[in-house]
Amino acid sequence: MLLRVDDLSLKLPSHDGSWKFAMPSEKEIYSDISFSLDQGSSLGIVGESGSGKTSLAKTLVRLYSPSGGRIRFDGLDITHLDTLQLQALRPKLQFIFQDSLSSLNPRRKVGEAILQPLLHYRLASGRREGLELTRELFERVGLSRSLMERYPHELSGGQRQRVGIARAISLKPKLIIADEVVSGLDVSTQAQILILLRELQDDGSLIFISHDLSVVRVLCEHVLVMRQGRVEDYGKTVDVFSRPKSRYTRALLSAIPTPVVEPDWLDKTDLTVECTNSVCQYGEKITMKIEGSVALVSGANRGIGRAFVECLIKRGAKKVYVTARDPKQLDSVISIDPAKVHPLQLDITDGAQIENAVGAARDVDLLINNAGANGNTSMISISDTENARREMEVNYFGTMAMCRAFAPTLKANGGGAIVNVLSILSKVNLPASGSYSASKAAAYSMTQGVRAELAAQNTLVVGVMPGAVDTDMAKDFQGPKENPIDVANESLQGVEDGIEDVYPGGMAQGVNAGLGQDPKAVEKEFAGYLPA
């Protein structure tokens, strides 16, 4: 094994900008990076801008000193070697920089940039032999010998990059690290450089840093995908492309333009992140396709919960975990599709049961919090607050506990969506169900807070606020009721469209519109539902 990296991390000094003389704090650039590279093999490191690719590459050649972890190169631990020890190692480990102009001395002719390393490391017996080797290197990378007498600014970007490659291979290294060497070049020049790099792999190993998976696909045997300083995917390129573990990797793969359609080479049923930055912020749009997703539905034994299961299966969900306090009540739900529907026992007010559910459903990327309680009691006329406490425990604290418990799972799976089934009564109080409305209002406020927190991990949080739905919970309501299937379908469509607040049905939409125009009038109308 030529290179082995274990749990590598890097922190660099960072000023917050408030006072230029302030002591710098440390900013984490990346952490827990592990991979290996065999002699003669190639590895592509890909990811969005700011993911830590270049910083990792510079650490591998010890331009940065790692904050933690270990680097072993050619049988030697180089993690903490000093400058003199590293100098002896440099010929074996070469770096090709992204900015070819700034990496060359502007006052020195490009031929000298290649000649000097040959003389310094005594690969040439003298200047005459060194110049002849330099001419051979120029020809090998497709440059005319006449260009040796030019300065860097007199060459094109592609020519300068070839000089950088010639300089790197001049010392016959065991490993070359090429950092974004084709970015900024025209398409034809990119192709020529990539062909050259591919030919050079016969002489040594290559680490190719890029943000372009389509290039890595044809150039590298292995690939490591980075995002926000963490490893999202790692393995053989063919395996990562055909069976990506991370939803983020799938989103990158789905964005690759291919001149010829390759049927079924990638399951394009994953998260689409519509963000302008590398990290989604609150308010930026996140969407997710239901097809191919793995969902967990709480309170799935009847009503809206059961409707969600039916709609998920029809929309192509890969797997659906269904939960209830009593698993025996799930038999009819399992019959919807026994191969895809998996039962779990879950009381969302029981921390141990939530923990067990998280352990059993590690592949979940869509969480639907439907379990709820409604005592149908007002706030003042009741003799005690037992129902109110129960509603708050289930509707608010239980839902919050589920969001907290499954957020790390969604993050580990590259993001996803959480759907909190609330009620239009979370925005206006129906006096006959005063304490229920209060608990749903608290849950709605919690949903907004969770939404803001989880945007950074590419997780969409949807609040669903239907009016009365034709279920056992609303059996005593005398007004119009929505079909549970319609509510579930509109909610899932909201997930696919990236809609954060969904108002399924005419009643919910009408109340929401009224609240926007004259909230006091809506409140007065709802006051008419006071119990006799």
Description:
The protein has 532 residues and is an alpha/beta fold. It has 17 helices and 19 strands. It has a seven-stranded parallel beta sheet with strand order 15-14-13-16-17-18-19, with helices on both faces. Strands 6-7-8-3-9-10 form a six-stranded mixed beta sheet, sandwiched between helices.
CATH class of the largest domain: Alpha Beta
Q: Major sheet: size, sense and barrel closure?
A: 7 strands, parallel
Number of domains: 2
The structural class is: alpha/beta
Say how many strands there are.
19
Span between termini: 81 Å
- Strand fraction equals 15-25%
Features:
20% strand, 532 residues, alpha/beta, Rossmann fold
Summarize the structure.
This protein is 37% helix and 20% strand. By secondary structure, it is α/β, with parallel strands linked by helices. α15 links the parallel β18 (459-464) and β19 (501-502).
Layout of SSEs?
Blueprint: E1 3-14, E2 25-37, E3 42-47, H1 53-60, E4 68-73, E5 76-77, H2 83-89, E6 93-96, H3 110-120, H4 127-140, H5 157-169, E7 175-179, H6 187-200, E8 205-210, H7 213-219, E9 222-227, E10 230-236, H8 237-242, H9 247-254, E11 271-274, E12 285-288, E13 294-297, H10 303-314, E14 319-324, H11 331-334, E15 341-345, H12 351-360, E16 366-369, H13 386-412, E17 416-421, H14 434-454, E18 459-464, H15 484-497, E19 501-502, H16 506-517, H17 519-527
Parallel strand pairs: 3-8, 3-9, 6-7, 7-8, 13-14, 13-16, 14-15, 16-17, 17-18, 18-19
Antiparallel strand pairs: 1-2, 1-4, 4-5, 9-10, 11-12
Helix pairs in contact: 3-4, 3-5, 4-5, 5-6, 10-15, 12-13, 13-14, 16-17
